[in-house]
Amino acid sequence: MFNEGEQVHNANALLQAITTLKAKAESMNIPVFLIQHEALEGKPLERGTTGWEIHPRVIGGTVIHKMTPDSFHQTDLHEQLQTRGVEELFLTGIQSEVCVDTTCRRAFSMGYKVTLVSDAHSTWDSGVLKAEDIIRHHNGVLRWFADVTRSKDIIEKWESERS
After folding, report:
1. Among 29, 67, 72, 142, which is most exposed with the fewest C-beta within 10 angstroms?
2. What's CA 76's distance to the chain center, in Å?
3. Could you say which of 99, 131, 142, 148 is catalytic?
4. What is the pLDDT, as a whole number, of residue 40?
5. Nearest-5° Cα angle at 60, 54 to 62
6. Architecture of domain 11-158 in CATH?
7. Are 52 and 36 in contact (CB under 8 A)?
8. How confident is the model over 34-52, as pLDDT tens digits?
9. Do the Cβ atoms of 138 and 97 come closer than 8 Å?
10. Whole-number pLDDT of residue 132
11. How far is 109 from 114, CA to CA, in rounded Å?
12. Is the peptide bond before 80 cis (omega within 30 degrees of 0)?
């Protein structure tokens, strides 16, 4: 996802937003879950391949492996969240129009309060649309299913709630 020449749109800013939010969550004992997509043998996200590995700056937290765009489908994510009493999710990641979109809608349908972190999800140009247009579109459309908020505003809210 971050290989030279194939980088996701705005890769450095994406990593910065995710790692800053993750570090703040961890410092406040907010559970962090990493959803790792894996594909069948021979596909780009095949388990154990370089492209499949979690970026070193993001490692840490509970890892959930999935085989579809829906982070809840055929995984124990819901059970893990329920065990920890989690009712609100803050979504980040890749790919805005696939995994992020699908997981956002599913979480909403399952009754979670969802916040899509507007500056912490990304994708690639599609051949029809530029990545920045896809991201902007999803930040707009997913407002039906989630609060759409920048990472810095989330951190400020967490800090003010804990003061």
Report:
1. 29
2. 17
3. 99
4. 81
5. 95
6. 3-Layer(aba) Sandwich (3.40)
7. yes
8. 999 898 888 878 787 777 7
9. yes
10. 97
11. 10
12. no
